[in-house]
Amino acid sequence: MSYYERHIFFCLNERAPGEASCSQHGAEAAFAHCKQRVKAEGLAGPGGVRVNRAGCLDRCAGGPVAVVYPEAVWYTFVDASDIDEIVSSHLKGGQVVDRLVLAPEVGR
Ligand code: FES
Questions:
Q1: Taking the model in full, what pTM does it have?
Q2: Tens digit of pLDDT for each residue in 86-97?
Q3: First CA to last CA across the chain, in angstroms?
Q4: Residue 98 CA to ligand 1 centre (angstroms)
């Protein structure tokens, strides 16, 4: 039994102007929205879900990105409704949101 059932890490990395990074694509707002939704759903805490900040996850070309463990599913997203779906479907229900999964070849 792991301490958290699921753990989601959001890349919030910020690079110099002109360089691609998740922070330029709404990552901070998505992170904050996810934390709020996880709390509102009663999922936060031990035995539940942890939402964490992360630095560069080295998949910048697909940014903004987040990864969910223990399944190691990588997501990219556009807006708050995408985050809502990740929370309700995957973090709460264990079902991967296929339409938001980052293509496997996307790297830096
Ligand atoms: S800046 Fe987000 S993965 Fe690199």
A1: 0.95
A2: 999 999 999 999
A3: 33
A4: 21
